[in-house]
Automatic annotation (TrEMBL):
Organism in which the protein naturally occurs: Lachancea quebecensis
Record InterPro entries: H3K4_H4K5_MeTrfase, SET_dom, SET_dom_sf
Top-rank lineage group of the source organism: Eukaryota
UniProt xrefs under Gene3D superfamilies: SET domain (2.170.270.10)
Domain SET stretches: 12-319
Entry GO CC: nucleus
Protein name, as recorded: LAQU0S01e05314g1_1
Length: 353
């Protein structure tokens, strides 16, 4: 079922409707009081921690203790610990209680083993981006080449030979590969008809605008795809194809939320990583938002900061920009989300200036 048919109900408190000027938007379907939680998400599609914080952030609850290394690791089934670190045994046990979790940890471990095996080859290597520009045609032609030539070639090789075709990946690519593995695991273990999967299929992709602005992403996408194509264990393979991979990354560009350190002021807190929560991606931005987003461990809660009337749009602040002047806010939104903010506050402030 598609959103266009008006059938996706993310919450009983609001509806998603198609509007003329801002596409899809969320509207309260009744009068709502300040401090109402309109959405509480307990499961993300995928998450990944920044490379520099990989040992300092709990893989289950994203706890960060000012740079202290997390103490709890997986048991010795995984010599490398699958790159997972936990704040407590309780968090580790919760993580391990996920159904089929060994398929996720196997994939993380294989990626990490490859990452460490490449350490020497990475030394002194400078990333020379082969793409300094990228049009829609160039993006399509890259994928056509991978599909028609690269995959065909790899598929004919013996498994032992394939390893020689692995690209040397950098830190960003490693972090991205972990994110994609997490997403593939969620896709593989979720019901196609679940709310999260329906929302995921309906996410808007910002692939072409993002890559045109940052052509270096094309190399990253290619390297991560090739790495996973060669390394992925069988359980995660069925959902791994070029269209799904491109949809995961294309929708990540416009829809991921930062995982920020909690309990710190917004200018001193650390950016620990990012995650995609498809059901939360239908809120539009406003510079006078009526929703506050708050992370509680691995849950994300969206709470009203004012009373709202039926049919009023529910909006969030995309990037902590409310303290900035209108021109600066609009510039940031344009650069990151490719739209010009026409919210009530921006309109008012441009009239005054
Ligand atoms: Zn934890
Ligand atoms: Zn605005």
């Amino acid at each position: 079922m598609t959103l266009e048919e008006g059938t996706v109900q993310i919450s009983e408190l609001f509806d998603i409707r198609i509007t003329n000027d801002s596409g899809r938007a969320c509207f309260a379907n009744r009068d709502l009081k300040k401090n109402t939680d309109v959405l509480c998400l307990k499961k993300c599609l995928g998450a990944s921690t920044c490379y520099e914080f990989r040992k300092e952030v709990c893989s289950q609850c994203f706890r960060y203790e000012g740079g202290r290394r997390m103490k709890v690791r997986l048991d010795n089934k995984y010599p490398k610990g699958a790159g997972l670190w936990f704040c407590t045994e309780n968090c580790r046990d919760q993580f391990l209680r996920q159904e089929h979790v060994d398929h996720l940890t196997d994939a993380y471990e294989i990626l990490l083993v490859n990452w460490e095996a490449q350490a020497k080859k990475r030394v002194g290597r400078v990333d020379n981006a082969s793409n300094t520009s990228a049009s829609t045609e160039e993006i399509e032609s890259l994928w056509q080449d991978i599909r028609d030539n690269w995959i065909t070639r790899i598929d004919c090789m013996k498994p032992t030979k394939r390893a020689s075709q692995l690209p040397i990946i950098n830190e960003d690519e490693y972090v991205c590969a972990r994110f994609v593995i997490h997403c593939l695991f969620t896709l593989e273990t979720s019901h196609a008809s679940s709310l999260q999967m329906t929302a995921f299929r309906n996410l808007q992709s910002n692939e072409s605008s993002k890559i045109m602005k940052f052509p270096v992403l094309l190399d990253l996408q290619k390297h991560v795809f090739q790495t996973l194509y060669i390394l992925l264990p069988s359980f995660l393979r069925p959902k791994f194809d070029i269209p799904t991979y491109r949809h995961i990354l294309g929708s990540e560009y416009g829809n991921s939320f930062g995982i920020w350190q909690n309990e710190e002021s917004s200018d001193s807190r650390e950016y620990l990583g990012y995650w995609v929560l498809p059901e939360a991606s239908f809120f539009n931005h406003s510079c006078a938002p009526n929703l506050i987003k708050h992370r509680a461990g691995n849950q994300m809660v969206f709470t009203l900061n004012s009373d709202v009337l039926k049919d009023q749009e529910l909006c969030i602040d995309y990037k902590d920009i409310l303290h900035l002047k209108v021109d600066e806010r609009r510039r940031i939104l344009k650069e990151n989300w490719f739209f010009s903010c026409e919210c009530s506050r921006c309109k008012l402030e441009t009239q005054i200036n």
